Amino acid sequence: MHEDFRALFDGHATRVVRLAALLGAEDPEDVAQEAFCRLFEKRDRLRGEIAEAGAYLNRTVVNLVRDRHRRSMTHRRLGLLNRRDDERQEPSAEELGVRADDHRRVSAALRAIAPRRREAVVLRYWLDLSYADIAVVMGTSLGSAKSSVSRGLDDLYAHLEES
C-alpha cells in the first residue's frame, strides 16, 4: 500500500505544486504537502484509483488555495515555474529573456484577475481539464465553469493588452 502511494506521489507531486503556484499560493509546496496528507488519510476510499486520486488532489489544492486567500488579503505571488526539458537544445540568452518577460507578464496578469476566474483559467489551460471537470473541481455548475473560464480569459487578455 505504501509503495502504491509513493508511486502516486511521484507521479503527481510536481504537477500539484505547479497547480498550487499557478492558483496563487504563496507556499505551493506546503499546499501540495497538505493535499497529499489529506489524500493519504482517504487512501482506503480511493482503492488505488489513480484517476480519482488525481481529481481529489486537484479539488483539494483548489480548496486549500481558496482558504489561504480568504484568510489573508495580501496579494499572492506566483513563483517561477521551472520546467526541465532535457530533449530541447539550450535556448539562446535572447530567447530566455523573452520567455522570462512573457512569464512575468502572464503571471502578473493572472494575479490581477479575480481568484475564481484565475482558478478556472489555470484548470482549463494549464491542466487541460474539460469544463465538466472544472465544474467538479471548483464545486460549481457546468455553466458557471464555462462562464468563469470565458470571463477569466477576457480579464487576462485585457491585463495583457494594458502591459
Automatic annotation (TrEMBL):
Keywords: Sigma factor, Transcription, Transcription regulation. It holds the Pfam family Sigma70_r2. One of its GO terms (molecular function) is sigma factor activity. Residues 8-72 form the RNA polymerase sigma-70 region domain. Residues 104-155 form the RNA polymerase sigma factor 70 region 4 type domain. The keyword Transcription regulation applies. GO terms for biological process: DNA-templated transcription initiation. InterPro entries: RNA_pol_sigma-70-like, RNA_pol_sigma-70_dom, RNA_pol_sigma70_r2, RNA_pol_sigma70_r4_t2, RNA_pol_sigma_r2, RNA_pol_sigma_r3/r4-like, WH-like_DNA-bd_sf. The keyword Transcription regulation applies. It comes from the Bacteria. Belongs to the sigma-70 factor family. ECF subfamily. This is RNA polymerase sigma 70. It comes from Intrasporangium oryzae NRRL B-24470.
